[in-house]
Amino acid sequence: MLRVGAHTSIAGGVHNAVDEQLEYEGNCGQIFSHSPQVWQDPNLDPDNAAQFRDSSAEADVGPWVIHSSYLVNLCTPKDDLRQKSIDSMQAELDAADQLDIGYVNVHLGAHTGAGVEGGLDNAASALDELDVPDGVTILVESDAGSGTKLGGEFEHLAGVRKRTDQDIEFCLDTAHAFAAGYDLSTPEAVDDTLAEFDDVVGLEDLACVHLNDSKHDCGTNKDEHAHVGEGLIGDDGMRAFVNHDAIRDVPLVLETPTEDGRGFAWNVERVKELREDE
Ligand SMILES: [Zn+2]
Ligand SMILES: [Zn+2]
């Protein structure tokens, strides 16, 4: 069954994310538990949290993902930033537990001089500090790979899994993978990229996809999302991707822009059109 939905706001209370998702005609989704640009605790109202759980169950909306703060940097060699990152991740995991959300998504961050191996060591040891509640899984997201950010190469994802004691899984962002140099613009390229992901990481551990088209070309390392089919991945690539055997049962979360008079509802509809036999 096709699971597709959008990153939704929790303005006015986390329960509002469910109504917003239903407006987009989405049936899974993602939230920030607080503003992602600042260090802040989720601080969820228990009544709103209960309403979120009930409404999601009743409307069969899920899985949900919490996307951690953009400030989190698991790879960092700086002690202060590392500790803030660990504390922030712990708060996200606890929020997920409170909301019955199964996934907390995180980027590896930037090694800022520690090197690839050092950065992966830092990330794994930071993950090892976390107390992960039952029923919650940490997803490490693929990155566009600019600067010293890790996660652009599938080997980085496999590398952190090898080093950590946590049972992590993965989120593949199509715009990031494309920008990082994995072509997704033709059916053949989609086949090759997913085969490579399978070889290096394993498709059985691909728990979520961030389905975004890209405003920048393959290999540019530039992270700017486009409407589904309207970027440089394009319709052929997106159609092949959403219909690929490896992807058909993976939830697709949209982080597409709101511009040109198109928002999430347009993109959800576009995915449904591209998907065959739905
Ligand atoms: Zn992300
Ligand atoms: Zn992005």
Summarize the SSE layout with pairings.
Blueprint: E1 4-6, H1 16-23, E2 29-31, H2 46-59, E3 64-67, H3 79-99, E4 103-107, H4 115-128, E5 137-141, H5 154-163, E6 169-173, H6 174-179, H7 187-200, E7 206-210, E8 213-214, E9 225-226, H8 234-243, E10 252-254, H9 264-274
Parallel strand pairs: 1-10, 2-3, 3-4, 4-5, 5-6, 6-7, 7-10
Antiparallel strand pairs: 8-9
Helix pairs in contact: 1-2, 4-5, 7-8
The structure holds zinc ion (ZN) (2 copies).
Describe what this molecule looks like in 3D:
The chain is α/β, with parallel strands linked by helices. It has one domain (4-274): Divalent-metal-dependent TIM barrel enzymes (TIM Barrel), CATH 3.20.20.150. Helix content is 39%, strand content 13%. It has nine helices and ten strands. The chain has helices at residues 16-23, 46-59, 79-99, 115-128, 154-163, 174-179, 187-200, 234-243, 264-274; strands at 4-6, 29-31, 64-67, 103-107, 137-141, 169-173, 206-210, 213-214, 225-226, 252-254. Strands 1-10-7-6-5-4-3-2 form an eight-stranded parallel sheet. A two-stranded antiparallel sheet has the order 8-9. Helix 2 links the parallel strand 2 (29-31) and strand 3 (64-67). Helix 1 (16-23) runs parallel beside helix 2 (46-59), helix 4 crosses helix 5 (154-163) and helix 7 (187-200) packs across helix 8 (234-243). The termini are close together.
